Structures are given as C-alpha cells and as structure tokens.
Automatic annotation (TrEMBL):
UniProt enzyme class: hydrolase
Functional description taken from the UniProt entry: One of several proteins that assist in the late maturation steps of the functional core of the 30S ribosomal subunit. Helps release RbfA from mature subunits. May play a role in the assembly of ribosomal proteins into the subunit. Circularly permuted GTPase that catalyzes slow GTP hydrolysis, GTPase activity is stimulated by the 30S ribosomal subunit.
The CP-type G domain, residue ranges: 80-240
Record keywords: Cytoplasm, GTP-binding, Hydrolase, Metal-binding, Nucleotide-binding, Ribosome biogenesis, RNA-binding, rRNA-binding, Zinc
Binding site residues for Zn(2+): C264, C269, H271, C277
Residues holding GTP: N128, K129, I130, D131, G182, H183, S184, G185, V186, G187, K188, S189, T190
CC per GO annotation: cytoplasm
Species in which this protein is naturally found: Fulvivirga imtechensis AK7
Protein name from the UniProt record: Small ribosomal subunit biogenesis GTPase RsgA
C-alpha cells in the first residue's frame, strides 16, 4: 500500500495509508534513497510503500521510499556530506511574522526566505497581530508587505486574536503540506489553535517537553487538518533560520538578485566589491531594497543572526 509518513520517532513511523487509515510501521533492514547519507532514512512527508503485518492489526513494514520532490535537511556540523532530514515534499514554507510585540527583524525574514528558496520550497509571510497596529505601524506594514510582494512572496495579514483573515489562512493551507514557523511569541500556537483546535493539545506537549530541558531530538510531526491538508510544526524548525549555502550561490536565492546576475560584468560576481555590478546599481537606484541587500551581505559574512 502507498502511504504518507506523518510522524517519525527514529524507530517507528506513523503512516497514513491510501485507505485513510493510520499504521504504525517499522523498516526492514537498511532502507536508503540513492545518493543520500542521512541520519534518518525516512522523514516526515515521505511517500512510502509499505506492507501490512499479517498478524498484528494496524502495523506494517516500510518497503520503499518514493522519490522526494524537495526536502529540508540540516547538515551535520562534523560531516558535511551527512545530514538530518527534517521534512520532505513540502508545498510551502510559512513564516509567521509580527512587526511589533515582538518585532521580527527583516534579517530574520530574509534568512527564512533564502533557506526555503534553497530547498526549492515556495514561501509565504503571514503578518499576525494586525489588531495591535496604529496608523504609523500600519503604514510600515504596508511598506514591508509591498517590499516582499514585489519579489514574488505571497503575504497575508491576520489577527489570530480577533480572527481577522483566518479564512484566508485556511484557504492558503487547503490541499497542501505546509511548514509553519515563527519566533516564540508571534502567535503561532494561537493561530494554529484557531485553524485546527484538535491539534493544539499536541503542540502544547512539545513545548512543555522542551521547556523542561529534556534533550529533544528534532523529529518533526505532520498533522492532518483536513482532506489532503497537513501542517508541520517542529521543535527544530526555528533553526530554519540558519543556512548552509556556498557564498557563490547565495544570490541565486534572492530572486531579485538572481534576475540581475547575468548583467553583472563578472559571471561569478559576489555583488560586493566588483565593478559594473548590476545588483549594486539596482540597490543604488532603489530597485532592490536596501534591507534585502543588507541581509545578503550579512549572510555572506556568515553572521549567525537568528533574530
Ligand atoms: N493582540 C494580539 N495578540 C495575539 C495575537 N495572536 C497571539 N497573540 C498573543 O501573543 C502571545 C503569544 O502567542 P502564542 O500563540 O503563545 O505565541 P507562539 O508563537 O506560539 O509562541 P511560543 O508558544 O512561545 O512558541 C499570547 O499572549 C497571545 O494571546 C493577535 O493576533 N493579536
Ligand atoms: Zn554583481
């Protein structure tokens, strides 16, 4: 039977079968996708083929992993060629952002976008807590929103508290596998609770566990919140802000810079000190946002700015 891996503990997996039933599955011996060296052979979001256990109802054995459309991997610090796959086959990476209470920095937003872009996952920004914004703050939000819309990022404005825009979020999620991320305090739990109250319990358990300081391995979990609709909320996903991208490649993941790259004099231009750089010219002319260029430089310099 074909199925979707919803949960991984490292030793067993929860697999949602084609028949809409959930199975507890193990693997048979070594299971590996060609060309992959990971600490976890099977990840949340993987489509697998599994056989049912003839003796025990509700159990099965995974025989095969189907090729992944994309995946988020955290590379091992020691062994660059190895890594831990956080999730696979993601349709969109959503970052919940607040411009106040607390303020999410543009640098953090850009790191998130670049990381998702490097994994070939489309990105969406959800601006939460808009009920708290006064005139000036709303003006600032409009400015930031258009900055990101101009580079092709979908943006939504919501208030999880007053439920403004909640229907738009439901529409956004429908029929997709979405990864939802955000700093502590931006209202991620509140928002998820409004959309899918049934999973709130589990979300709470994860943070309690983490708070007690118990070593938590970062195994993601995918929650089904409707027909073909899933969200992933993982204790390790905050680290999606940390990227491991070669310096020469970095501007490929800034869509507005990628578009100008062919116009730079040097094909391997880093857009820093080189003459006749189309990217620097665009920044000077205001066609590329200053904040985006600053984020680019800061990532290039290797600042581990997670906030
Ligand atoms: N005014 C206002 N407050 C909100 C909104 N959404 C969430 N909050 C409040 O913001 C605080 C943080 O919300 P949480 O949902 O706990 O935030 P979180 O992102 O899940 O944070 P962690 O649980 O630390 O990961 C709570 O006091 C919420 O009531 C909103 O749209 N407007
Ligand atoms: Zn250049």
């Amino acid at each position: 039977m074909k199925g979707l891996v919803l949960k991984s503990t490292g030793s067993w997996y929860e697999v949602l079968g084609d028949n809409d039933r959930s199975y507890t599955c193990r693997t048979r011996g070594k299971l590996r996708l060609k060309g992959f060296k990971t600490t976890n052979p099977i990840a949340v979001g993987d489509y697998v083929v599994f056989s049912l256990d003839e003796e025990v109802e509700g159990q099965g054995v995974i025989d095969e992993i189907l090729p992944r459309e994309n995946y988020i991997i955290r590379k091992s610090v020691k062994l660059k060629s190895q890594g831990h796959i956080i999730a696979s086959n993601i349709d969109q990476a959503i970052l919940i952002v607040t411009l106040a209470y607390p303020r999410t920095s543009l640098g953090f937003i850009d790191r998130f976008l670049v990381t998702a872009e490097s994994f070939r996952i489309p990105q969406v920004l959800i601006f939460n807590k808009i009920d708290l914004l006064d005139g000036d703050a709303r003006h600032y939000l409009a400015e930031i929103r258009s900055l990101y819309e101009n580079i092709g990022i979908q943006c939504l404005e919501v208030s999880a508290l007053t439920e403004t825009g909640i229907e738009d979020v439901k529409d956004l999620l429908k029929g997709k596998k979405s990864l939802i991320s955000g700093h502590s305090g931006v209202g991620k739990s509140t928002l998820i609770n409004k959309i899918a109250p049934e999973i709130n319990q589990k979300t709470g358990e994860v943070s309690d566990y983490a708070e007690k300081g118990i070593h938590t391995t970062t195994f993601a979990e995918m929650f089904r919140i409707g027909q073909d609709t899933f969200i992933i909320d993982t204790p390790g996903i905050k680290e999606l802000g940390i990227i491991d991208i070669d310096k020469e490649e970095l501007s490929d993941y800034f869509p507005e810079m990628r578009a100008l790259q062919p116009e730079c004099k040097f094909h391997n231009c880093t857009h820093t000190h080189e003459p006749k750089c189309a990217v620097k010219d665009a920044v000077d002319e205001g066609e590329i946002a200053e904040s985006r260029y600053m984020s680019y430089l800061s990532i290039l310099e290797g600042d581990d700015n997670r906030r």
